[in-house]
Amino acid sequence: MIYEGQICRAPMERASFMLPVMVGCSYGRCKFCNLFRHLAYRELPLSQVEDELRRVRDMNGRPRRIFLGDGNAFGLDAGHLEKVLDMIRGYFPQCEAVNMDATVTSILMKSDEELAMLYQKGVRHLYIGIESGLDDVLAFMEKDHDMSQAYEAVNKIRLAGMIFDAHIMTGVAGAGRGAENAEALAAFLNSTSPRHVVNFSMFHHKEVPLYQHILDNTFRPADELENLREERRLLELLGTPDVQEGEPVIYDGFHDYIQFRVRGRLPVDRTQMLDKLKEAIRQYEHRSPVFSYVQGECPHLEKCDGLQKVWNMQT
Length: 315
Known about the structure:
- By secondary structure, the chain is of the alpha/beta class.
- The protein is 36% helix and 22% strand.
- The protein contains ten helices and twelve strands.
- The chain has a nine-stranded mixed beta sheet. A three-stranded mixed beta sheet has the order 8-11-12, with no helix packed on it.
- β9 and β10 (260-266) form a beta hairpin.
- α7 (178-192) packs parallel to α9 (224-237).
């Protein structure tokens, strides 16, 4: 496969065939993001997309789920996506679902008729970067949506029959606002019922615009202890019995900098998840503050303090 940049997709898509339809991200202005900043965005020609479909078919591949990459594939024009979906159906008629990342804006730009068509052509699951539940934080981070638009976008895709997962970030609101952000996010998530919630504790990259705000004190980063406390408050509220209907919310929370992860189903696994967080909080309450400062580009992130490797997504 010809692929530019690092592979980035939701953990739930690790078994899917990843089909590149673009390079980079069509938005690319989020102040905290370093995933695609080094790439020049462009759509891949349909001929190149078809070459990849043919290659996999000729190797006897029979994928039942396909994930379209890279960042925000749903931002492609509906007509272009229709052509891709028709090619997928032609090469892999057994494919049950085509999933991809989306932004709130990319959803709102599509009509109800276009969303219905995309569902009929096989689009089933969208991964949306909600990030924060606070409008001023979203505006500061240049997320290109506010919470009223997020509610509207989720309602539109649910009416079309699609499922959504929410990607959020502890620490995105900055120091002293973790609990406030957790409560706002819980209200949104409990109202919109995502299938999965994936929570990443935010890295502070030296290469992104947010880092300058840290230097000039217009953004005060939360330390990892506050991020753990923010996550605890979120899990206390998320999927509570008075709002939970149908399937449990599947939750996965990553703190890669301190190598901590909590996951489970809410509300059924709440007690065990909170107990795990309680122990992590107890450990970090007795340490000097730990901040997730990193340098380098994915997939080779390095800590700024001593250049210790944090992760390597290729392993």
